[in-house]
Amino acid sequence: MATIAIAKRSSVRSIRAFFYALILTVLLPAQGREQSIDIYLRDDVYTDYVAFLAGRSPLAVSDFSGKRVRRDVVDMIVAQQALRLGGFEYSFNYRVGKINFRNTRLLEQGKLLISFDTYWRADALMLSEAALSAMR
């Protein structure tokens, strides 16, 4: 059973990494040569993200315990660390607000580079196909 659990976690990580890479590969040229990338996220997630970091760089985080940590915050930090390790040098301009399905629509239209929100595999595949269609 432990082997299956490890395989599932590894599979989820692989899907996330694939989705991040796909979005970067397909949509980065659409962003042009701008030095910052707009990221839309809910205000409560941003509040917890800032509180959890407490002035630290997300690239320096290795311990994900403490107050205000939650899946959304961990997703944001891990994605930024993975992008930096992959050579991504752009900064993020956070657009905070009451955002529900706006991210999904922007991803489908090819107008959003990346979402720090987690998607189920089936949703990610549909979004990637919609984004590729929008680029054609």
Can you offer a commentary on this structure?
There is one protein chain. 54% of the residues lie in helices and 10% in strands. The model has no long low-confidence stretch (mean pLDDT 75). It is mainly alpha-helical. Helix 1 (2-27) packs parallel to helix 5 (121-135) and helix 2 (43-53) crosses helix 3.
Question: What are the SSEs and their pairings?
Answer:
Elements: H1 2-27, E1 36-42, H2 43-53, H3 71-85, E2 91-97, H4 102-108, H5 121-135
Parallel strand pairs: 1-2
Annotation keywords:
136 residues; mainly alpha; two-stranded parallel sheet; 5 helices; 54% helix
Major pleated sheet? 2 strands, parallel
Q: How many helices does DSSP assign? A: 5
Task: Kindly provide the radius of gyration, computed on alpha-carbon positions and rounded to a whole number of angstroms.
Answer: 15 Å
Query: What's the helix-strand series?
Result: HEHHEHH
Question: What low-confidence regions span 5 or more consecutive residues with pLDDT below 50?
Answer: none
Distance between the termini: 44 Å
Supply the helix-strand structural class.
mainly alpha
Number of strands: 2
What is the helix content? Answer: 40-55%
Output the strand order for the largest sheet: 1-2
Shape: globular
Residue-averaged pLDDT: 75
Indicate the proportion of strand residues: 5-15%
Short overview:
With 136 residues, the chain is mainly α.
